[in-house]
Structure formats: C-alpha cells, structure tokens
Amino acid sequence: MRRAYKYRLFTNANQDRELGIMLETHRRLYNACLDQRKTAYEATKKSVKYTEQSAWFRAERHTNPYFARLNFSSAQATMRRLDKAFSNFFRRVKEKAAKVGYPRFKSRDRHDSIEFPSHGDGIRLTGNRLRVQHVGTIRVKLHTPVEGEIKTITLKREAGKWYVVASCDLGEVKVSPSTLPPVGIDVGLESFLTTSDGRHEPNPHYLKTELPELRVTGRAVVRKKKGGANRRKALRRLQKVHVRVKNLRKEHHYQVACRLILAYGLFAVEGLNIRGMLRNHRFSRAISDAGWAGFLSVLRHKAESAGASFVEVDPRGTSQECSGCGEEARKDLSVRQHNCLHCGLSVHRDINAARNILARGQGRTGPAEVNVDHGVKRPPRNRRVHAMA
Description:
Elements: E1 2-10, H1 13-44, H2 50-60, H3 65-68, H4 72-95, E2 113-116, E3 123-126, E4 129-132, E5 136-141, E6 149-158, E7 161-169, E8 182-187, E9 191-195, E10 200-202, H5 206-223, H6 229-263, E11 266-270, H7 274-277, H8 284-290, H9 292-306, E12 309-313, E13 337-339, E14 346-348, H10 349-362, E15 369-371, E16 375-377
Parallel strand pairs: 8-11, 11-12
Antiparallel strand pairs: 1-5, 1-7, 2-6, 3-4, 4-5, 6-7, 8-9, 9-10, 13-14, 15-16
Helix pairs in contact: 1-4, 2-4, 5-6, 6-9
C-alpha cells in the first residue's frame, strides 16, 4: 500500500530563492527537451527518445552551470515526465480520442513541482527537518508522523508557499472487513449529502462565500499589464483566495468522510457523470463548489483503508422511484418532498433517493424488506427513467 504525506515548509529568504531557481531550471529543462523532440520530428519525422535526452543532459551539465546544480535523478524525473506526456499523446491519437492534446511548453504558472525519485539522493526527510541539495535544511510542519518507507519526495509550490509530498510504501496491510451497517448516500446541492437513515449534511458553500473577494482580486489582475511585477503580485493574491477555498473544501470532505467511516461499513453511492452535469450552466458553479468528485474519491479511499465496501449504482430514477413500493412517482426538480400515491409514503426527496441507492447497492432480489431505520425497500425495476434525479 502506498500513502502520501503532505507537509508545509517554512523557508527563509535564501532557501526560497534557491528553490525558485531550482524550479525554474527544471522548467527550462522540460521546455528544452520538448523543443528537441518537436524540432527533430519536424525535420526528420523521427522521435527523440528519453535515453538520448538523458545522455544530452549529462553532457550539457559540463557547460551549463544551472544544469550542473540540479540533482541528476530529479532531472531524469523531469525528462521522464515529458516522455510520459508524449506516451499519453500517442495513446490518445491511436485511440482517436476527442481531445488529443499535444504536449505544450510550460510557463512559470504551469510548472510548480520538482520530483526526487529516490529518498536520500539529493533530498532527505529526517523528523521535522528536510535536507535539500544546494538549498540546506528546511523546517517542516510535521503534523502527522511519517509511516512506512519513503520512496519518492516531491517539492511543490502553491500560491508562493512551499510543500513537501512524501510517498511512502506501507507494505502489505491486512484490513479486517467492517461489520458496521450499510448506508445509501445521495449527494446534492440543497444538502451536501443525505443518508438513507435520514441524516442531512449541510452544504458549506465555500466558493459562494468567497465570490465577492474573488471578483475584486480577479478584476485587479485584469487591470495590470501582462508580464509586469504588479500583475504577478495581483495574481498571487488571487491564487491565495483560490487555495483557501480549495483547502476548506478538502478539509470538509475529509471530516465528513471520517464521520461516515466510523458509522457505516458499506457505502452505496450514485455513479454520476459529473463532467456532463457541469454542462448545465445553471448549476455548474454550485456543483463545482460542492466538489462531489473529490468527496467520493476521499470516501472510496477511506472505505478501502477501513475495510468497508464502496459500491456505485446506476443513478437513473433514484429520485423518481418510490423506495416503499417501487412505483414511479414523477416530480420536477423543484419538488423537494416525495409523496407516493400508491403506498402513501411521504419523505424528503433526497431521503427517498438515498434509500433507493442503498437498495441497488445491496442488490436485493427478494421481496421488500422492512427496516425500522430505513423503512420499506425493494429493488428498483429494470426500466429506464429519463426524468432528472
């Protein structure tokens, strides 16, 4: 099992400058190798391989003082990143994908990490101190102890702050299956999520709260001249607001996921096409603000670590079908209460959907089952419901 740990670095002025020079040198190395491949193919219709560029870099280190200060293994990791980008490009071309995406040159805003593929080769994390070649010893905010053997270390810059990401190998970890009860989860916008036993998690709306400040800082960036120092300063302020929203959303996802893991042992969720849902411009900002994809990814990871099951079900008709009798009760999206004319069940729309999700996740094929907490449930019928859930 692999696990990554991310820590904040507290650098002084000299260390911040040296790390910035190192990051810029890696960016120029990436662009130089990309230019070699592009020029060679345009001239001879032949590709330049990674081994050829690695040999070129080894010779270039004797004449380029900036390349000479780079750790050789980390430079190889940068060249392998480009090689992987081309491999993905050729794979998409072969598959005739809709978006091919030829590798492009990295600007200063698009290259923000340095990978060290071997712990101890140019970088070493010992306790709350990080030793980096040609930079020195940097203080680390070690909020969680590192477990397992450190395999790779990545330095990352986000909104002017430096972080270290340590990827560790925990070995073979045996996890006992969870014996906690199952639950169906329906994610939404009115509530962040609703469980099949009637619990509602409020939606924090972090992006909506920060929209006034985002508008002000975004307009300040547009007014500045491109390439100027004032524009970079304004852009840094805008990045800090976005990073704050991202961190708050991520913290909320982990807190909610941890509470669910402690209470349930099987999670049935909808297999949503979130990318397709974002095409609806009326709800795209609210969907992005909730971050359903990120939350479900966190919940899946936490469930696997705790021995719980994670099941995705077909989302079609989960809100339109009655969880009590299985009959269809069509209603518009604005109708928030489910009222069945056949069995008389009256519950909140999201609770009804969560119960249907749980029934589909458990794959019931027998008669309807009565549960004190969840009510009457039966498996959904195999019919297609086109109404929006």
